[in-house]
Design goal:
This protein is of the alpha+beta class. It has helices spanning 8-23, 111-122, 147-162, 169-184, 191-198, 242-257, 277-301, 309-321, 328-339, 365-379, and strands at residues 29-40, 50-66, 77-82, 92-97, 131-137, 203-208, 214-218, 226-232, 344-348, 355-361, 385-389, 396-398. Helix 3 packs across helix 4 (169-184), helix 4 (169-184) runs antiparallel to helix 5 (191-198) and helix 6 crosses helix 7.
Length: 403
């Protein structure tokens, strides 16, 4: 069993106390943004397709305080600290100025808050003052559960409220996507931010990435005696590397060769014979994955949660064989879970590492856990982290009382 996650309210109260110790002031508030699991719909978001993620009960918290006019020090400086620190260090610290931000100018985890400020200034014309921020997150880093997007969403939700910007959630999703694409340098789509912003407890988010129309679809796992088990392979991935970008470029080439603005506009049944073998495989995955998302949504609307298992497994096969973004550890996690009785399993996230998910019956949890751990040990792989997740509400302020 993985260690239990501390309740959000107590985490927030601890963060307020820690903030006062670090900065000598109380924060203006604490905001939470969850990570996400993508149930199905992988590499379809930047192709204007369909996705079905859900926000999870692991989250990033930020305590923030805007710099006041007349305070000593530089008015546009941002001071950052994170409880996720290198071994032997109490906190990880960074700083930047809100004015003059340029891509590549801020590195490490601080690039995510800086990217949000960059997007607000450059894209939305917002004047962002300096601020102090303390971050705490329970979303595993590099596990494909959108730890970076959780940080970005928490920051933009906090600034949206404190600066009284009045932005709706689709607008904030587009701005955080801009931050990822233009500042961080990761060519991600719109899914992760949308799930973190618009998730609902007990539901998945059916999102049309072309229109940003969304619908909450019931995902009552507990009622059906089911769980989603996350298998974090501990193979760290990064969206800012070349593999993700290469897949996106391949999809864009495929759409252009088929005379479409994006793969979303390619009609079902279109011949792919004119494409080279690699591009054909990439396009085949995206077209098939969009159809699988629609089928899963149909099952969930009908109350047939267990019936989605085969579609999850088919998604993994397509990601492994056609999109080629899996890895030996992800394949082993899926195979071991299925052999131990999982109803379906697939890698989740961008790939090249990260996590797999398995849809399991509650009574099978210990058997599946043991089978996965045993398979990893037999192959000499690093022991995976295993934990279950539930669909959670999207980002928002946490009400904390302090004196």
């Amino acid at each position: 069993m993985s260690a239990p996650v501390q309740p959000v309210q107590s985490r927030a109260e601890n963060l307020v106390r820690r903030f006062a110790e670090v900065y000598g002031e109380t924060p203006d508030g604490v905001w939470r943004a969850p990570g996400r699991v993508n149930l199905i719909g992988e590499h379809t978001d930047y192709n204007n397709g369909f996705v079905l993620p859900f926000a999870i009960d692991r989250s990033a918290l930020v305590a923030m305080r805007l710099r006041r006019p007349g305070e000593t020090g530089e008015p546009d400086v941002v001071r950052l600290a994170s409880t996720y620190a290198p071994d032997g260090e109490e906190l990880s610290r960074a700083r930047f100025h809100t004015g003059g931000l340029e891509p590549g100018g801020v590195g490490g985890w601080a690039a995510y808050p800086a990217g949000v400020v960059f997007a607000l200034v450059r894209r939305a014309g917002v004047v962002v003052p300096g601020f102090d921020l303390l971050l705490d997150s329970t979303v595993p880093v590099g596990a494909g559960l959108s730890s970076s997007h959780a940080v970005e969403v928490a920051v933009i939700v906090a600034l949206n409220e404190l600066l009284e910007l009045g932005m709706d959630r689709p607008r904030m999703a587009r701005l955080t996507q801009y931050a990822e694409n233009e500042f961080v340098g990761a060519p991600t789509g719109i899914m992760d931010q949308s799930a973190s912003l618009m998730g609902r407890e007990g539901s998945a988010l059916f999102l049309d990435c072309r229109s940003l129309d969304s619908e909450t679809v019931p995902l009552p796992l507990a009622r059906h005696g089911l769980e989603v088990l996350v298998i974090d392979t501990r193979v760290v991935h990064s969206h800012a590397d070349g593999g993700y970008s290469a897949r996106r470029s391949s999809c864009e080439r495929g759409a252009a060769a088929l005379g479409a603005a994006s793969l979303r506009e390619v009609p079902a049944g279109t011949s792919l014979d004119r494409l080279d073998a690699e591009t054909r495989r990439r396009v085949r995955h995206v077209l098939g994955e969009n159809e699988r998302v629609l089928q899963v949504v149909g099952h969930l609307r009908a109350g047939d949660v267990a019936g989605i298992g085969n579609l999850l497994t088919a998604s993994h096969a397509s990601l492994r064989d056609d999109f080629e973004v899996s890895c030996p550890e992800l394949d082993l996690a899926v195979d071991a879970a299925l052999a131990a009785g999982a109803l379906g399993a697939r890698m989740t996230g961008g790939g090249f590492g990260g996590s797999a998910i398995a849809l399991i019956r509650r009574e099978d949890e210990e058997r599946v856990r043991a089978a996965v751990r045993g398979a990893f040990a037999e192959r000499g792989f690093r022991e995976p982290a295993l934990f279950t997740v539930l669909p959670a509400d999207g980002a928002g302020r946490i009400r904390v009382t302090w004196h």
